[in-house]
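Worked Example 4.2. Consider the chain below.
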Amino acid sequence: MIALTSLAALSMNLFLPSLPGMTAHFGTTYGVMQIAVAGYLGVNAVMQLGIGPISDRFGRRSVMLWAIAIFCLATIGCLLATHVAVFLFFRMMQAAIVAGLVLPRAAIRDLYSQDESASMIGYVTMGMSVAPMLAPALGGVLDGLFGWQASFVALLFAGIATGALAFWDMGETATRTTSNFRQQVAQYPDLLTAPRFWGYAGTAALSSGAFFAYLGGAPYVGSTVFGLSPETLGIYFGAPAIGYLVGNGLTGRYARRAGTNRMVLIGSLVNAGGLALSLALSYAGFGGPLAFFGFMTFVGLGNGLVIPNATAGSLSVRPHLAGTASGLGGAIMIGGGAALSALAGVLLTGAGSSRPLLWLMLLTAIGSVVAILLVIRREARLSGSRARI
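Applying the procedure from the previous section yields the following structure tokens:
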């Protein structure tokens, strides 16, 4: 499960330090090339709407294996592309690997209770966080040595290795259902009318939205505003993953004891607080690369506390629809991330500082605090109603 989630995370950010070079290679603009990030996230979101119900119907294992096969074929297409439109087409196909984010979470919820699954998801994503922590640095080195194509060669070999591991080692955790795909999709309203599901999904989407905005804007800030080389940008770029590693470790250790809601609230506050401090330093004249990227560890730390716990909460609203909930919740999170990633690119066009990006990240982080407070208020009301009964 760690390998599957790591591959899905790796495909998002391994090549990001190469974006300026890829822009020049294909003779296009940064805005068009940035579709490789924002468009990829958007397709991720759409695919998750189907992957969840399909896995509830046919099982986690078979869907995962097909997704890896499509990812490997699409990666070959990216390598052979000679025009930016062809590259972007195959880049969108690579989004099939989003199954590696959806299905391990659903498989864990198949086996564990809400607080236990939060702990287990935390440990899995803690291991997975090593990939995005090392990926930008690795991508920058590969770009410097061999060019942008080297990152996609690395993704291809990682896909083949992970596919072999999943084929031999991944068992089936889902109980097969006799309902067809249309009937599975028809159960979405059962989730969409649950306020707690929306609260948890919204919290995860807004908290991670700060990180996705970072993905869309940080390459521009690093290369254009701070003038960093691809190798140096790759090293700085992995700062949030350090915090994410720590946050997931804390989730794995304390989620059962503290409870999911408390962990989510703490994480949301850490996320917003770190961004507020970074923005304050920028206005005070200390907004250099060390300050900008250093405070991004708070974004990672907050997300490491929020995402596993909010995910476990959303999957526990309707446990029999764990796959569907994982897909729908992931679609909301990634879809919002795609929009914020694109918006970051628009806001930064022609900008000479990191402040537009920091403001966007801070506002989304504050939204996550509001969302989890509404969930806590809702659960308090439900507990009060049950007590009176």
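The chain has a mean pLDDT of 82. Residues 355-388 form the longest helix (34 residues). Compare this with Example 4.1 before moving on.
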